[in-house]
Amino acid sequence: MFVGHYSAALAAKAAEPRGPLWLYVAAAQLVDIGWSGLIMTGAEKVSVDPSLPGSSLVLYHMPWTHSLPGALVWSLGGGLVARWLLRLPARAAVLVGAVVFSHWLLDLLVHRPDLELWFGGPKVGLGLWNAAVIEQALEMGLVAVAGALWVGQRVRAGGGVWPAAAFLTFLTALQIMAILAPPSGGPVQMGAYALFAYGLATAVAWLVERRGPGRAG
């Protein structure tokens, strides 16, 4: 799953507008931001098998980011940073932590069994990647529903609709690019590309919200 993770960010923004969109967006991919850095250092392992449907990634060692306890630690860290460093209201900070953890839950739906239930424990994953059309429909469907919630919240608060439309258009383009250019190269190249994509999404979220009319909400 790629842009489908951002559905949690949009839903959180609709539920608690006091949290900045860029932070929710970064939180949605925080686990993969950590994964990108760790595969570049060799602490976690990945390879590519182009014969696999849906996603060609073979994620055979990623205990520090994609195990259940690992994801819980990242979620707790995200929430604490939001509360104590960024000074967000408690409700927004809790939602930041929840958005971080949503990454693991959504990965559970699409990953092949590669998510450890505990360090060194059994690996789980429902494997929707093996049904690529269904998986893509799920991703974009989640984004569409969460985007609609965000639009509704903005309208009720008297804000403009175009920031949501602009960001949803960007996410659609990002997903199309990911389909047309699947992962390739070694871990360093893949990690760098992923970090660029996550950074770009966060920057666009900041820019869209900052320049949009009716910024409150």
Per-chain topology:
Layout: H1 6-15, H2 21-28, H3 30-41, E1 45-48, E2 57-61, H4 63-66, H5 68-85, H6 90-110, E3 115-116, E4 123-124, H7 132-156, H8 162-180, H9 187-211
Antiparallel strand pairs: 1-2, 3-4
Describe the structure.
The protein is mainly α. It has helices spanning 6-15, 21-28, 30-41, 63-66, 68-85, 90-110, 132-156, 162-180, 187-211; strands at 45-48, 57-61, 115-116, 123-124. The protein has one domain (3-211). A two-stranded antiparallel sheet has the order 1-2. It has a two-stranded antiparallel sheet with strand order 3-4. A hairpin with a 6-residue loop joins strand 3 (115-116) and strand 4.
Provide a compact summary of the structure.
By secondary structure, the protein is mainly α. It has helices spanning 6-15, 21-28, 30-41, 63-66, 68-85, 90-110, 132-156, 162-180, 187-211, and strands at residues 45-48, 57-61, 115-116, 123-124.
